[in-house]
C-alpha cells in the first residue's frame, strides 16, 4: 500500500527559499481552481502549497428527516460564520446531491470532506476544487480493522491520489489504537466528555496521545470535539467549548471538526451561547493558525503539581504565543517563570494575571483560557 501523495513535491521539490516563504503563511479558505493536498513532515495539511488548518463541523445531513436543500442552507450559514470545512455524506443520491453541494461550497470558499461515497463516484467528485478528501470510515476501531482500512485507502488513493483520506477513532492513553495510524492520511480522535463519563480535562491527554501516534506514523492528527448533547443530558456551555478547543490546540492538533452542526435531536444554532463561542473559536484559531501549523510547540510547567493548569508555547516563524488554561470549574492560583520573555500581550480576553520581572502570576478563573502574544 502506498502512502505517497502525488503532490509529494509540496514537501520535497520546492526550493529552500520557497519552502521558507511558504512556512510563513497559511491558508484558511478555499482559494484557486485546483485542490492539491499534501502532508507536511510536521503533520499538517498543505493545500495548493500553503499550510491549512481545517476548522469546521460534522453535518449529519439525514438527521431529523434532513434534506439536501436544508444542507445547502446550512452550508451557507457555516461558511458565512467563518468556518472552512464541512464533513458530510450523501442522503440518497451521491452525484445528484454532492455535485451541487460542492459547487456551492466552491462559491463560498468552503472545503468538503465527504463520507460514505462509493468508489464509483470518487473520480467525479474529486474533480471539484472544494473537495478536500474522503472519510474512509467512522469509529474505525469499533467497526473494522487496520487491514480493512488499508485496503480502502488503496482503493480511494488509486482513484483520487491528490485528495486527503481520513478516519475517525476513539483514542485514549490506555487504548492508543496504534495500528490504525498510517493506514490513512489523517486520523480524527473523538472526545465528547460533557454528559458522559469523562472529565472535561481529558481532552488534552487524549489529544496528546493522538498527536504522538500520528507523529510516529507521519499522519495528520485531527480532533472531533463536542457540540451536541448526549440523550437526556445537557449541552456543553460556551466556556466549556472554548476550554475543550484550546486543550486540543495546546496538545498539537492540526485541525478541528466539531460534532456536530446538525445531528439527531441536535442543532447548534438553537443554542446561541454555544454557536457564538464556536464562531469566536474559528476567528481565534484562524489568527493563531500560522504558528500552530508551522511553529515549534513547547510545553511549560506552571508552579506546583496542579493537574488542572496547562501552559504551552508556540514559536512560529513570525509570531510567538503562550496559552495558559485551567481545566477546573474552580478558580486556581497560577504562577510560572518565563525567563526569556520581555512582554506578554493578552489576546481575545484578559484574565488580569500580572507579568513582572519574568514571572507570570495571578488567578485563573473557572475554565479560564488566556492567550498571550510573546515578545
Helix/strand/pairing category: alpha/beta
What is the global morphology? globular
- How is the CATH topology of the largest domain named? TIM Barrel
The CATH homologous superfamily of the largest domain corresponds to Glycosidases
- Tally of helical runs: 10
How many β strands by DSSP? 21
Strands in their spatial order, largest beta sheet:
5-6-7-8-9-10-11-12
User: Unreliable stretches, pLDDT < 50, 5 or more residues?
Assistant: 1-24
Let me know the average pLDDT: 93
Cα-based radius of gyration, to the nearest Å: 20 Å
Classified by CATH, the class of the largest domain is Alpha Beta
Description of the structure:
The protein is of the alpha/beta class. The protein folds into 2 domains: 9-294, Alpha-Beta Barrel (TIM Barrel), CATH 3.20.20; 298-374, Golgi alpha-mannosidase II (Immunoglobulin-like). 31% of the residues lie in helices and 28% in strands. It contains 10 helices and 21 strands. The chain has helices spanning 9-12, 16-23, 68-80, 94-107, 119-126, 140-143, 146-159, 202-217, 238-251, 272-294, and strands spanning 26-27, 37-39, 45-47, 50-52, 55-59, 85-88, 111-115, 131-137, 164-169, 186-191, 220-226, 256-263, 266-267, 296-300, 309-315, 320-326, 332-337, 344-347, 354-356, 359-364, 369-374. Helix 3 runs parallel beside helix 4.
Amino acid at each position: 500500500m502506498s502512502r505517497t501523495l502525488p503532490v509529494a513535491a509540496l514537501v520535497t521539490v520546492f526550493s529552500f527559499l520557497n519552502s521558507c516563504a511558504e512556512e510563513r503563511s497559511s491558508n484558511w479558505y478555499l482559494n484557486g481552481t485546483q485542490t492539491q493536498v499534501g502532508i507536511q513532515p510536521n503533520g499538517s495539511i498543505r493545500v495548493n502549497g500553503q499550510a491549512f488548518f481545517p476548522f469546521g463541523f460534522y453535518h449529519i445531513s439525514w438527521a431529523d428527516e434532513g434534506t439536501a436543500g436544508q444542507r445547502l442552507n446550512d452550508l451557507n450559514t457555516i461558511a458565512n460564520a467563518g468556518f472552512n470545512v464541512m464533513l458530510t455524506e450523501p442522503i440518497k443520491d451521491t452525484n445528484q446531491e454532492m455535485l451541487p453541494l460542492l459547487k456551492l461550497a466552491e462559491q463560498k470558499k468552503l472545503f468538503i470532506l465527504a463520507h460514505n461515497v462509493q468508489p464509483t463516484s470518487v473520480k467525479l467528485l474529486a474533480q471539484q476544487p472544494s473537495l478536500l478528501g474522503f472519510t474512509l470510515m467512522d469509529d474505525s476501531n469499533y467497526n473494522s480493522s487496520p487491514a480493512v482500512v488499508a485496503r480502502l485507502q488503496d482503493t480511494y488513493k488509486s482513484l483520487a491520489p491528490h485528495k486527503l483520506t481520513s478516519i475517525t477513532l476513539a483514542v485514549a492513553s490506555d487504548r492508543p489504537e496504534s495500528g490504525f495510524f498510517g493506514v490513512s492520511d489523517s486520523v480524527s480522535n473523538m472526545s465528547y466528555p460533557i454528559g458522559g463519563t469523562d472529565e472535561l480535562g481529558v481532552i488534552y491527554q487524549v489529544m496528546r496521545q493522538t498527536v504522538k501516534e500520528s507523529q510516529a506514523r507521519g499522519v495528520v492528527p485531527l480532533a472531533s470535539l463536542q457540540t451536541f448533547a448526549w440523550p437526556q443530558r445537557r449541552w456543553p456551555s460556551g466556556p466549556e467549548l472554548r476550554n475543550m478547543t484550546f486543550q486540543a490546540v495546546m496538545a498539537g492538533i492540526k485541525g478541528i471538526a466539531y460534532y456536530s452542526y446538525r445531528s439527531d435531536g441536535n442543532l447548534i444554532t438553537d443554542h446561541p451561547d454555544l454557536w457564538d463561542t464556536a464562531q469566536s473559536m474559528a476567528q481565534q484559531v484562524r489568527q493563531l493558525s500560522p504558528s500552530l501549523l508551522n511553529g515549534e510547540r513547547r510545553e511549560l510547567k506552571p508552579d506546583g503539581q496542579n493537574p488542572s493548569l496547562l501552559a504551552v508555547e508556540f514559536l512560529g516563524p513570525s509570531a510567538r504565543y503562550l496559552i495558559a488554561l485551567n481545566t477546573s470549574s474552580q478558580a486556581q492560583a497560577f504562577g510560572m517563570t518565563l525567563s526569556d520573555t520581555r512582554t506578554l500581550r493578552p489576546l481575545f480576553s484578559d484574565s488580569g494575571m500580572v507579568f513582572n520581572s519574568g514571572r507570570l502570576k495571578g488567578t485563573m478563573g473557572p475554565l479560564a483560557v488566556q492567550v498571550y502574544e510573546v515578545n
